[in-house]
Amino acid sequence: EVQLVESGGGLVQPGGSLRLSCAASGFTFSSYAMSWVRQAPGKGLEWVSAISGSGGSTYYADSVKGRFTISRDNSKNTLYLQMNSLRAEDTAVYYCAKCGYQLPNWFDPWGQGTLVTVSS
Amino acid sequence: SYVLTQPPSVSVAPGKTARITCGGNNIGSKSVHWYQQKPGQAPVLVIYYDSDRPSGIPERFSGSNSGNTATLTISRVEAGDEADYYCQVWDSSSDRGVFGGGTKLTVL
Question: CA of A59 to nearest chain B CA: how many angstroms apart?
Fold first, then answer.
């Protein structure tokens, strides 16, 4: 069974940093692209970032480009999202999701999410 | 950037058919994926590649995609289908993921 478990969320001040992790199990991690998707309170889904199975290609939404960095450690079956220069509008539940193939396409399954709150 | 447009809400009586649309410029040339999200839960993929169903998703869920509109169809709607539904594409021209704004399905 595929399992994705996010961690690292919490309360951070504007301008601060946070690193999210997503521990994966139940599949050959390096064979699949992975992605982060967020959902602000009461709002819809927003795609944030994706990374190819090898880690050689990364993709970002314009809203986070230059502030967030996605990475993966295939030896540890773990996906990361380093978030810097955080803003109030980054407040959301962050989900990690497995993509369908080596490159991003659809997202299945999703983790349970981790809440990031940016506030002073 | 590529934009997907969904109606904010759709209502349907139990046992009837619900159709949720997703509009986008020449969306028929893209692969559309659909997610169901119930309150307090993570999204679940219900349709991928326009019309394929993941294992475990009832046959009542189907999808189509042509021209400027993709459609998620839920037949014989049940109370348990009440949820938010999102369409999604991977826009290969910009290498970005794109979600529609979501549609709240209410079962009357």
Answer: 7
